[in-house]
Specification:
The protein is α+β, with helices and mostly antiparallel strands and about 140 residues long. It has 2 domains: about 10-45; about 50-130, Beta Barrel (OB fold (Dihydrolipoamide Acetyltransferase, E2P)), CATH 2.40.50. The chain is about 25% helix and about 30% strand. It has helices at about 15-40, 90-95, and strands at about 50-65, 65-75, 80, 100-110, 125, 130. Strand 1 (about 50-65) and strand 2 form a beta hairpin. The longest helix has 29 residues, at about 15-40.
Length: about 140
């Protein structure tokens, strides 16, 4: 006695197409969310920055694999690294304008202790700097 084979069923193309379109829409949606997420989180927006004081002893310009930078050596702060807008043409001239003395440095607040001093680290990224006002106590925390 021969067993009757069931007739092959035609695949449901509608279900397959709907799932493919659904996955494509979800994929495109997530691709769109990535840049929107960066924008909403404020990538490259300087937030949570505070001023601290450091006594700079030396500033040197050097080229790294990531580009040009100015390295600040200080007596009461870790090595400070400044990179914003530096090129081969302007890094060295800018470094020579930095004379030893007290400077106010703008750092991310996570690099500053509650007492206003810069946390211990090998190096800290510096967002901006300026000479400290004359007569200011360099060891005193700055007002934030």
């Amino acid at each position: 006695m021969a067993h009757a084979q069931p007739a092959p069923q035609k695949p449901n193309i509608l279900d397959s197409t709907v799932y493919k379109v659904l996955w494509l829409v979800i994929f495109i949606w997530f691709l769109a969310l990535i840049p929107l997420g960066f924008i909403s989180l404020g990538v490259d927006v300087e937030r949570d920055l505070r001023w601290a004081k450091c006594h700079v002893t030396e500033a040197t310009a050097d080229e790294t694999q990531a580009g040009w930078r100015i390295t600040f050596e200080a007596t009461n702060c870790p090595r400070l690294i400044y990179t914003d807008g530096l090129t081969e043409d302007n890094a060295e001239p800018l470094a020579t304008t930095i004379e030893p003395g007290p400077y106010e440095v703008r750092l991310h607040e996570s690099a500053i202790r509650p007492d206003g001093h810069v946390r211990s680290a090998e190096e800290v990224r510096l967002h901006s700097y300026r000479p400290a006002p004359a007569g200011g106590n360099i060891d005193a925390p700055t007002g934030f």
